[in-house]
Design brief:
This is Probable transcriptional regulator. With 150 residues, the chain is mainly β. The protein has one domain: Sandwich (Jelly Rolls), CATH 2.60.120. 7% of the residues lie in helices and 40% in strands. The chain contains one helix and ten strands, in the order αββββββββββ. β1 and β2 form a beta hairpin. The protein is globular.
């Protein structure tokens, strides 16, 4: 990492973000934005691709992190899977745009298809795309609201 001599893995970055209690997306800055656009617009070609280690997911950070909210367009590649640790104090939610996948939230199994949405309040989450086609979705990670009904 120092002087561009090595590339950190996604796992390394995730551990760093956890240690400093920041969203991992804070580590992916959008350096090519113009001053006029910096606070309002992110062009498609300026998006940062985040590829978690060996999960088969490709995530594009759609906007800079604001208020701890991370906003992604995720592509779950065909025949890919991942298990994500519980994120205490975090709400994860998404909606499927194309395709389908299977998700386990706190051990509960669901099949989620185009047009369906899901959410997870700080529980362990794992997913599987058993299909021959990718699944495309919008995925949001945010701090849990203080309201217990959220």
């Amino acid at each position: 990492m120092e002087r561009d001599r090595s590339q950190p893995s996604y796992s390394d970055l995730a551990a760093f973000a956890r240690a400093f209690e920041i969203p991992i997306s804070e580590l992916f800055r959008h350096s090519t934005q113009t001053d006029a656009e910096e606070h309002d617009v992110l062009r498609r070609e300026q998006r940062r691709e985040i590829t978690p280690d060996s999960t088969g997911a490709l995530d594009d950070l759609l906007v800079p992190v604001m208020g701890g909210i991370e906003f992604y367009r995720s592509h779950l590649l065909a025949h890919s899977a991942s298990e994500l640790p519980a994120r205490s104090g975090r709400l994860e939610m998404g909606t499927v745009l194309e395709g389908a996948f299977e998700i386990w939230i706190g051990g509960r199994h669901h099949v989620v298809e185009a047009g369906d949405s899901f959410w997870c309040r700080g529980e362990t989450l794992s997913w599987l795309n058993p299909h021959d086609t990718p699944c495309v979705m919008i995925w949001v990670v945010a701090p849990l609201p203080h309201d217990s009904d959220a």
